[in-house]
Fold this sequence. Notes:
The protein is of the alpha+beta class. It has helices at about 5-10, 15-20, 25-30, 50-55, 90-100, 105-120, 130-135, 140-150, 155-165, 175-200, 210-215, 225-235, 240-255, 260-265, 270-280, 310-315, 350-370, and strands spanning about 5, 35-40, 45, 60-65, 70, 130, 215, 220, 285-290, 305-310, 370-375, 385, 390-395, 395-400. The strands form five sheets. A five-stranded mixed β-sheet has the order 2-3-10-9-4, with helices on one face. A three-stranded antiparallel β-sheet has the order 6-14-11. Strands 1-5 form a two-stranded parallel sheet. Helix 13 crosses helix 17 and helix 15 crosses helix 17. It comes from Thermoactinomyces daqus.
Amino acid sequence: xxxxxxxxxxxxxxxxxxxxxxxxxxxxxxxxxxxxxxxxxxxxxxxxxxxxxxxxxxxxxxxxxxxxxxxxxxxxxxxxxxxxxxxxxxxxxxxxxxxxxxxxxxxxxxxxxxxxxxxxxxxxxxxxxxxxxxxxxxxxxxxxxxxxxxxxxxxxxxxxxxxxxxxxxxxxxxxxxxxxxxxxxxxxxxxxxxxxxxxxxxxxxxxxxxxxxxxxxxxxxxxxxxxxxxxxxxxxxxxxxxxxxxxxxxxxxxxxxxxxxxxxxxxxxxxxxxxxxxxxxxxxxxxxxxxxxxxxxxxxxxxxxxxxxxxxxxxxxxxxxxxxxxxxxxxxxxxxxxxxxxxxxxxxxxxxxxxxxxxxxxxxxxxxxxxxxxxxxxxxxxxxxxxxxxxxxxxxxxxxxxx
Length: 403
Ligand code: HEM
């Protein structure tokens, strides 16, 4: 039976504030217990950059064919599931969706993403305070991924709500209730997508669902069921993560590096560096694998079948990889080497899309507004919601300065 690893139980970070800023715990773990065995859950935890990277790269030792996982989304055992497979089988599955995310196909989407960003940002004009999460960070990725798949973006409240439920983290107290809630969301999501897939079989269009209908997999077309599952996976995968990135970009501009906004105003070419540094510095994420054979590669005896969690956000602040790692610095030479999009065979397929969305959103915003400021009395803990790997901003009101 599948089982979900409860990350908060391992970290013992209880308060919202600690979960939002887990960085001193990460530092302590890197320094004192970089390879930590949690006996209660029978899970190894690694915090150093080199170790996390090895876990992600080395599928012979650390496999994705796992029964237990951090991933709170109910699992499907379809032959097309990307997450729970290893190469060489994984390569075929990945090829199914990889075409949609090549740089060339993305370039054709750039003008559409720009148009959506323009529209969302134009709606902010004339306002003095906007909630940047609700007005930009949530709608942009949802509208974009709906467009890419060919699902009506007017229905976005629906699939955003289902995705949110699917990603809700489990906690011991709410486990059974969440199992039920998630099963219901899965069913409703399915019932929504199924007729869309059937319709596209009759009338294919220029979108990812129609592409999936056209491809052959293992010498036969994908079933409706499989197309629904892949589409649902993409609708969900592209949402919460990109929302977190865009929200955190604004948080970093105002809290981690005040003054950077004016630097961007005078040189927009610094926007991509800013996005990369936010991905390195402030992006809560952890990935898991199953130990595939007994090993002591990290100096401890890990047994076949045990789980290992790579604490990516801790690895991203490892001083041996990033000098002055605890400082937010867009000018560091190697900030693209963060592990936030993973590494190795499962490297995030949506990374070019997420980067493009964040770059377009920030560039468009910076061109429009002379400055931004925190609102008086802003307390981050009042604006957080529990997310799969910690806390994320559910709202973030900011002051807009027009001239
Ligand atoms: C895989 C992070 C946005 C689709 C991954 C993985 C990470 C990740 C860490 C690797 C998982 C593992 O090794 O087990 C992120 C972050 C994002 C983001 C931080 C935004 C800031 C997106 C978007 C899409 C997407 C926009 C597509 C719509 C995927 C897919 C995989 C994946 C399909 C599976 C790849 C595979 O297993 O081969 N993502 N992701 N992601 N991501 Fe993303």
